[in-house]
Amino acid sequence: MPRFAYVNGRYLPHDQAHVHVEDRGFQFADGVYEVITIIGGKFADEEGHMLRLERSLRELSIPWPVKPASLCFIMRELVRRNKLRNATLYIQITRGPAPRDFKFPKEPVPTLVLTCRRAGFQPPAALERGVAVITLLDIRWQRRDIKSVSLLPQALGKQKAFEAGAYEGWQVDEQGFVTEGCSSNAWIVTQEGVLVTRPPSNAILNGITRLSILECACAQGIAFEERPFTVTEALAANEAFMSSAGTFALPVVRIDGQPVGDGTPGPLTLRIRQAYLDHVGAADPLRKGQ
Length: 290
Ligand code: PMP
What we know:
- The structure is a single chain.
- By secondary structure, the chain is α+β, with helices and mostly antiparallel strands.
- It has two domains: 4-118, Aminotransferase class 4, branched-chain amino acid transferase, N-terminal domain (D-amino Acid Aminotransferase, Chain A, domain 1, 2-Layer Sandwich); 124-280, D-amino Acid Aminotransferase, Chain A, domain 2, CATH 3.20.10.
- It has helices spanning 24-28, 46-59, 68-81, 124-129, 152-163, 208-219, 231-235, 267-280; strands spanning 4-7, 10-13, 31-39, 42-43, 87-94, 111-118, 131-137, 168-172, 178-181, 185-189, 195-197, 224-226, 239-244, 248-255, 258-259.
- Strands 7, 8, 9, 10, 11, 12, 13, 14 and 15 form a nine-stranded mixed β-sheet that branches. Strands 2-1-6-5-3-4 form a six-stranded antiparallel β-sheet.
- Helix 6 crosses helix 8 (267-280).
- The longest helix has 14 residues, at 46-59.
- 4'-deoxy-4'-aminopyridoxal-5'-phosphate is lined by residues 35, 180, 183-185, 205, 207-210, 243-245.
- 4'-deoxy-4'-aminopyridoxal-5'-phosphate binds next to helix 6 and strand 13.
């Protein structure tokens, strides 16, 4: 079946979907993006992702290429044309093509690209056994709160994690505190059963899944603290997990080769994962029989 992508007003077969060589996204990484997971036809946390997209655009003074309502229509149309029920949808907006010059063009014509593919959910073993992470120095810029397409440090980190046989890289700041994963937020559950994650600031991307998990924790009366934690604290924790639109809450059982807790997925992590899936109204794609 041909895959379709959307580029500036047109739905195109994937291999014919191109952007201009002088697009500022390509030349300067001058653009933003969002990733939305569609589970069983449901757009998970759509409102939150749209709000963050609006914020990212505003922070970089990139105008909306189309009205937000039109974008929501295009998103659905693309998923429909690709005949997908479980999908990962990428929305990328750049400042558009312009003669190469660092300064912004006077009248930018932003580029809008949407691609989607069958959701590459992790193998069920990732949930049953948990995943490993390695730690890396966070070498990114100081506006990590903007979901920018400038992802080179994350690509380097993910590659290093892959080469080490780990699933994710947890980035660590100069003071030894975990900032976040290369494409996820980082969480621990202390020995007292308190959920801990770094507070939103320009040091991390405020994950939409992260925000929903905090809402679920509130609703379920789970104690939580938004504060930075160190790798040492994570290694002494009862549980750890990562969160993102594509992984929901995924148990982390090893950090730099050392077990977290008893080295198996923690009960609070699994409870939070279920609460999150209930919150978005979807069944867990990693559970057998679903
Ligand atoms: N931090 C980073 C650096 C990310 O790339 C992502 C995934 N986009 C997240 C956190 C998690 O964000 P979300 O829950 O919105 O997917």
